Amino acid sequence: MAILPIVIYPDPRLEQVSEEVTEINDEIRALVADMVETCYAADGVGLAAVQIGALKRIFVLDPTFAGGSKTDPALVFINPKIEATEGKIKEEEGCLSLPGVFIPVERFAKTRVSATNLAGERFELEGTGLLSRAFQHELDHLDGHLTIEKIGGIRRKLALRKLRTPEEE
Known about the structure:
By secondary structure, this protein is of the alpha+beta class. Helix content is 23%, strand content 28%. The chain has a single domain, classed as Alpha-Beta Complex (Peptide Deformylase).
């Protein structure tokens, strides 16, 4: 297991659609282990594979956001798909690939997702609040979308200024 660098916007990989996983093998298991380590090291809620440079349809979530405990294994979603949604809610959202940037994003208030786990079993999980938001946020990554796309004009420019270092100003 390794803590890997997180891909930061405007890296073009973040705008690419991730590929379906066709086989759960040692390479995929190692990728997931690295994703989990990286997510926890960055203090993230979740992490999509593209955020460490792997264009695979995989994301992981901290189990505490799904009612689990810190000792539970991370939740692993391979080839996830939204099955049902309900309601809407708008809240500020952060992203490990946009450090320090928080954007108000409208999301579904309740989401049911299906995915495959590391054992190759298909499962469904329903979430509300932050869990529902995390499902949608990570799925956006897998489809090549970022929260920064949800705002425009001056608000976008102001948000992106937070990503620049003083030398870039």
